[in-house]
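Repro:
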Amino acid sequence: MATNQGSGKPTARRYSPEEKAAAVRMVRTLRAELGTEHGTVHRVATQLGYGIESVRTWVKQADIDDGHVAGVTTVDASRVRALEQEVRELRRANEILKRAASFFGAELDRQHRK
């Protein structure tokens, strides 16, 4: 894994969807060949030079997405994030409209009193 120059801290590497899918396929193939899950993620991650926890996370998410394990699918998680963003934007817009209504209401009230 690469490190930040001078800091000694590892830098995050971005893996393409194809790289992730290939790693998941390799883990699943190895599990089928060996008849066990034990050590398969570690072996594949080491062979590819990927982080063990990264590969473990990809396999876990693929198992959820493929319906083998219960959990939130990638599609559902993406939809939730999009909806949460929309809610934030709508709340901001509502706040702006409330302030505008209050401002113009106060203006009309002042004009009405004259």
